[in-house]
Amino acid sequence: MNVLYFNGPVQNGPFTLADRPGKAAGIRAAEALNTLLGAGPVPHLWNTVTLAGDLRHRDAPDRDTVGRQEREERAIAAKYAPGAPPAGGVLTDTTPVVAALALEMTERLLREGALAVVPTAVHLCVRCGHMTGAVAHACRACGHQGSRPHTRRLLVWDRPPGTPVLARDDFHAHRARPPHHLLTIAQNVPERLILSRTRDHGISLAPLGLDGLVLDPRVGVHIGVLAAAAQSNAGQPVMTVTENAAANVAAYGSPFRRHNGTRLRYALHGRIPYDDTAALQRLCEVHRVSPAQREQFLTWFLPLCSLHIRAGITPAQIPGLLKFWRRAHLARPDTPRSDVLAELRRRIAAGDMRWVMDVQTLSQAIPDYPVTHGFTKEPKGASR
What pLDDT, on the 0 to 100 scale, is given for residue 381? Predict the structure, then answer.
């Protein structure tokens, strides 16, 4: 069964990927690994089912002429440089193919008894009716402080006693050693998880008799990856995700990580300090790193490093990584060795990212041109 990497769906907020390159770390890492595996482009995945998106749409002056779906599509298109959409396209958590798969999986889990639609005690905002959750707190939809208890039919998952929501084998790695605290955080969730939410936008649960409710977006991001994997005939999809994101979504995705023989796993990556560009420019001048090499360092090497340095790359590590990158560039062969590339593909398929810090292996893997993924304009050339 073939391995393919997909980015953990990025929340579609008010930013561009050129302005917030850290948001693209998972996209860039996945695309670099897939290219080294010899796979074709895969879609960039986006999370559009957000309360923040609901509020932006409600407050927009053109809300009567621009629908929510169109607004999301426009916002995603604006993330990329003009005329440079991703080669594999984009896929959101409300795309019809994702919505269809979500309902198919949910209905199957209901038939099997893993999920249930049952009367559940929650709290509703007394002003707008938004479901604030099982515990009373201020409404995030309208800001009102008051809520009232209410019992309504909801889609829920009752964890079987002793069943972990996240285990070591849910991570794609040759040494399955996810941070212990991540496993602990994921376990500290209620025994009953509510999988239906009040949102203006999302995968409607009306076909299940739950009018006015949508599937929890933390479920939807997993199904988006499975739908993209099905389109690419990938039996082993791997989602690139930060520790914080995994801790937030893993429990809700637990019943939805397997479908028709396909199993989704996570590949953790750390954050990248993209902020101090002036300091990086000075370092590049000192070490004679060309603009093209600098672009590759930012958009190709650092995202791959983030899969190895999972705790996050610190600003203090950038000078050493840049010097290492320069050494790897100087060691590049005219023609990469086929045996080295074959071993590299084996390691990538197994989730072994130690090769990133091996100068000789890295030198064989560096692409000829910076890979910008449509985030910025492609340079005219690249220096070897």
Answer: 34
Other residues' Cβ atoms within 10 Å of the Cβ of residue 248? 15
Q: What are phi and psi of 365, to 5 degrees?
A: -95, -15
166 contacts: CB under 8 Å, gap ≥ 6: 178, 182, 183, 186, 187, 246, 250, 251, 254
* pLDDT tens per residue, range 28-48: 999 999 999 999 899 999 999
Max CA pair span of the chain: 70
Across-strand partners of 154? 118
- What pTM did the predictor assign? 0.93
Distance CA 272, CA 307 (A): 11
Q: Count Cα neighbours of 100 within 13 Å in the Cβ-side half-sphere.
A: 6
| Residues 105 and 196 sit within 8 Å (Cβ to Cβ) | no
Handedness of CA 278, 280, 283, 287 (dihedral sign): negative
Q: Where are the beta strands (DSSP E) in 229-342?
A: 236-241, 258-259, 262-263, 265-268
What is the C-alpha separation between 150 and 121, in angstroms, rounded?
6
Mean pLDDT of 65-78: 96
Residue among 212, 113, 100, 112 nearest 153 (CA): 212
Helix (H) or strand (E) holding 5: strand 3-7
pLDDT at 382: 34
Pairing of strands 90-92, 116-125: unpaired
**Predicted pLDDT at 380:** 32
* Residue tagged 């790695």 (tokens): 173
Question: What whole-number distance in Å separates Cα of residue 336 and Cα of residue 130?
Answer: 58
Query: How many residues are present in the chain?
Result: 384
Q: Is the pLDDT of residue 355 over 90?
A: yes
Collect all residues with Cβ–Cβ distance below 8 Å to 324 and sequence separation of at least 6: 357, 359
